[in-house]
């Protein structure tokens, strides 16, 4: 009989896991708390491991990418408000693929819902959450709540995959409280889509205005207006969630009066949706316990500064499928093999994220100055390699 898995969360990690499970001959069912799919979203750079995982999961053909030719021009704004050549996110080694979170979501959804390639569609139940998870050793008994009907019902599965994001309920129920696993980075982010490019810049330009403790990043894309990330450091994370986020951001960025900050804050006032959240990493000694496994941000959130969350979620799902295929009769062995393959990769990128955070938003004036010097050298080297200078 085919083994059944309950995947909790219809994000990138959940759908990647469901496809991996299906490739391994399992029958996955996905439950999602929200009433419908979450589309759109912010800029995501997919690294080579993420692009390879997309191939392994068979979604690369559905994935819409938005890289401007040659990575596009990137500009840095100086403290005087003048522009100079900069290093954009897409200029880092590995040639990231530029996508929106929604592009990855859409590609995965096409595969999950049956893409005409003969694969069975995965059953997806919206407005459904787990209430209780009991691993009996033989199966997992999950009590589920359907918010539409108010009904609760019990289901028996062979494996539960918790892919329910940074503040995972599965992690809390099975492994322990958030405080045990979520590390706080004393930083905040706000990400959203701009309706149009910052005035006087070319449509696909990327623009960075980074000062000690606060920064704005505009991610230029080939075929639509850029997305923007406002990020800042704070010692009072809880306090950031009181009052209006827009007002809070206006206060934090006051005095940083350049055209990018102005355009971002004015656009935020009109934005139909935005993400405003604190920054964390999730660190766990082990990602599975018996027949329950965590995957994606729930297990290892490397955070946005790492630029590896979507990449590692895709890879995690693809590798889970491979480990289950390689160990069809031994779930423990499969989960151990999966974790051994993945953990060095995750640990490495969680560590590098601290350094990358300094590139996103320097922690002090001296670091800001050092960052500028390092970037100027890197830009010169890049220009020498390409034999070109951006045109403003
Ligand atoms: C601003 C920003 C920029 C980023 N940039 C990059 C980048 O450049 N490169 C990169 O690789 N990554 C990037 N990331 C990270 C990346 O978006 C995530 O790591 C990735 O999407 C994996 O998320 P996930 O599927 O694990 O979790 P999520 O996307 O949080 O999905 C979890 C899902 O579970 C559902 N859920 C939650 N609780 C329950 C419940 N109790 N029951 C049922 N369902 C539930 C949620 O509704 C949601 O649909 C960025 C993230 C941010 C915020």
Description:
The chain is α/β, with parallel strands linked by helices and 392 residues long. The chain has 2 domains: 4-39 and 103-181 and 281-354, FAD/NAD(P)-binding domain, CATH 3.50.50.60; 69-99 and 185-280 and 360-386, D-Amino Acid Oxidase, Chain A, domain 2. Helices cover 34% and strands 25% of the residues. It is built from 10 helices and 18 strands. It has a 7-stranded mixed sheet with strand order 5-4-13-14-15-12-16, with helices on both faces. A 6-stranded mixed sheet has the order 7-2-1-11-18-17. A hairpin with a 5-residue loop joins strand 4 (74-77) and strand 5. Helix 2 (48-56) crosses helix 8 (309-326). The radius of gyration is 22 Å and the shape is globular. Flavin-adenine dinucleotide (FAD) binds at residues 8-14, 31-34, 38, 42, 44-45, 50, 101, 129, 163-165, 169, 189, 191, 229, 275, 296-298, 304, 307-311, 313. GO terms for molecular function: FAD binding. Residues 5-324 form the FAD-binding domain. It comes from Pseudonocardia cypriaca. Pfam families: FAD_binding_3 (PF01494). This is 2-polyprenyl-6-methoxyphenol hydroxylase-like FAD-dependent oxidoreductase.
């Amino acid at each position: 009989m085919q083994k059944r898995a309950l995947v909790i969360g219809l994000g990138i990690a959940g759908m990647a896991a469901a496809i991996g499970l299906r490739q391994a001959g399992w029958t996955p069912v996905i439950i999602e708390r929200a009433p419908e799919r979450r589309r759109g979203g912010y800029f995501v750079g997919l690294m080579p491991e993420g692009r390879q995982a997309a191939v392994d999961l068979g979604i690369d053909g559905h994935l819409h990418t938005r890289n401007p030719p040659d990575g596009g021009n990137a500009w840095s704004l100086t403290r005087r408000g003048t522009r100079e050549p900069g290093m954009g996110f897409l200029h880092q080694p590995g040639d990231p693929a530029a996508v929106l979170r929604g592009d990855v979501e859409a590609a995965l959804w096409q595969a999950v819902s049956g893409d005409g390639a003969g694969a069975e569609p995965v059953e997806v139940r919206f407005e459904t959450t787990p209430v209780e998870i009991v691993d009996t050793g033989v199966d997992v008994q999950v009590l589920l709540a359907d918010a539409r009907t108010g009904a609760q019902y019990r289901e028996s599965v062979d494996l539960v995959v918790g892919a329910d994001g940074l503040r995972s309920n599965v992690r809390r129920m099975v492994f322990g409280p958030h405080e045990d696993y979520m590390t706080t980075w004393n930083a905040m982010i706000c990400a959203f889509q701009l309706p149009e490019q910052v005035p006087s810049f070319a449509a696909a330009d990327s623009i960075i205005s980074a000062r000690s403790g606060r920064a704005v990043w505009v991610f230029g894309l080939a075929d639509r207006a850029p997305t923007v990330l406002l990020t800042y450091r704070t010692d009072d994370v809880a306090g950031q969630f009181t009052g209006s986020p827009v007002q809070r951001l206006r206060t934090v960025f006051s005095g940083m009066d350049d055209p990018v900050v102005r355009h971002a804050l004015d656009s935020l006032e009109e934005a139909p949706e935005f993400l405003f959240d604190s920054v964390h990493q999730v660190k766990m000694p082990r990602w599975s316990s018996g027949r329950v496994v965590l995957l994606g941000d729930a297990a290892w959130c490397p955070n946005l500064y790492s630029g590896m969350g979507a990449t590692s979620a895709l890879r995690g799902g693809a590798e889970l499928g491979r480990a289950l295929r390689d160990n069809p009769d031994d779930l423990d062995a499969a989960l151990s093999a999966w974790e051994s393959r993945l953990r060095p990769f995750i640990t490495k990128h969680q560590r590098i994220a601290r350094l990358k955070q300094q590139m996103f938003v320097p922690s002090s004036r001296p670091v800001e100055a050092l960052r500028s010097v390092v970037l100027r050298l890197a830009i010169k080297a890049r220009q020498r390699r390409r034999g070109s200078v951006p045109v403003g």
